[in-house]
Amino acid sequence: MTQKNLVSIISSGLSKFGRLEGKCSREIFVEAAKEAFEKCPNLDPVKDIEALFIGHMGESFEHQGHTGPILADWAGLLPRPAIRIESACASSGVALRMGIMAILSGMYNIVMVGGVEKMTHRTTMDVTEFLTMASDFPFEQWNGITFPGLYALMATAHMHKYGTTEEQMARVAVKNHHNGALNPKAHIQKEITLEKVMSSRVIAWPLKLYDCSLISDGASCLILTNPNIAKTFTDIPVHIIGTGQASDTIGLYERDELTTLKAGRLAGREAYKMAQVTPKDLDIIEVHDCFTIAEIIAYEDLGLCKPGKGGNLIDQNVTNLNGEIPVNTSGGLKAKGHPVGATGTAQAYEIYLQLIGQAEKRQVSGAEIGLSYNVGGSGASATVHIFKRG
Amino acid sequence: MRRYTFLRGDNNMLEDSPFTIESFYKFLGERKLMATKCCKCETLFLPPRPMCTKCLSTNFNWVKLEGKGELISYTVIHFSTEQFQSKTPYIIGIVKLNAGLNLPGIIRDMNPKQIRVGMNLLVDFDTSIPLQWPQWPRYFFKLDTLSS
After folding, report:
1. CB contact under 8 A, B78 and A129
2. In total, how many domains does chain A have?
3. Which residues of A does the annotation mark as catalytic?
4. What is the mean predicted confidence (pLDDT) over A292-316?
């Protein structure tokens, strides 16, 4: 199989991530869509965009479902078909994949993919409750297992099996906050110290407050085209050359291994094979650091290191901004924020900016190939995309 | 159509109870931890499923499990959903039962400082029915003092 450009990204948009008081999700999405439209003057959105695929996780947050047509309307795209995709925190990663498939099917030449979530107007307890819906109801939720709890169970197992430490997990947070401090759209743009992470209050042992990603509002989008027409719209397209997705049991407890996400490994394998690249070819990566342990496990599942060695990558600064393979240059879910439905395409937005050389203070020079890894729930959904500078 | 009535303490559930999650929970009311076994390929399931995901058979038998096993991971929840707030901090574990199946649940009567991966735990039953839907009995884990 030879490498093929599946689709091209010709523009992208990202709202500010954070506590966006007084704004609801449709208004936040317009902020992202407006940026994508303005950055691509050759595109007539109303005429050219043929369909919209939207990631949006929870109708509980705003008591609002049926998000697809709402966002099509508010982005000025009526009467184009619009579809909401719900795959928990992987919703917009999957929406991106659906957009790729729509173009590859030959039905459309230009589509918009994106995601949105409005979360910060709810109490932390409500948000915990709503997010918990992405876990198993009759055995996990009913026994009082929260999302931090699920990832804590992975962390304890990883610590026991491989000797991973709380300090290594804390270093993931320190690294991502460093990157987030360089990202003007990040929810928290502030460095933190190792001591601050280690002394923060316990949420679900061994995970502490600063091991957890942020509850944020935000929206993200990309405009995808058939690669044959990308140059009509931009001189610097970014091509998507690999996509992968896999599923696993909804219950973490039902799996043979707690220290790895099988769906992530399989999605990665599919994307690497399609893109004809190996982990060594990657220049930048955005991974799903919903909790710090998730980033360590992601290193292993994506093949950056052997199983159990993820903590070493952090200790050796390999994934730092100036390291061998920078991970989460945006600040990740940890510092940029995690408006769940928006996260998958927000990761792609960062890779796109890096590959076209517009990531400003956090630019990785000469980045040509990037990867994004978006996880739903405790790993029942996972999707990987590989990008190449055009 | 329900094929049985659930009367706690009075009648035992019939062995032909439907292979459902509801039946699993209702068996707990009789202090029984029940899994299902595929008649064709003998795969065990917990919770029960209407179809075997290994061979797609829909024929099962109920199997009563001993409820003993080994702790494979744990966490201490300090921040919970509203429903569990009064219990915080509480310990959650995943136990690999001797039958080979994993079960998650709350570990009761245990000091978090004493807990360790690999310790022997035992399933016990709380047959008082909680007020929240779906109003079924519960199970929990405790230290298996005989095996420890």
Report:
1. no
2. 2
3. 89, 338
4. 98
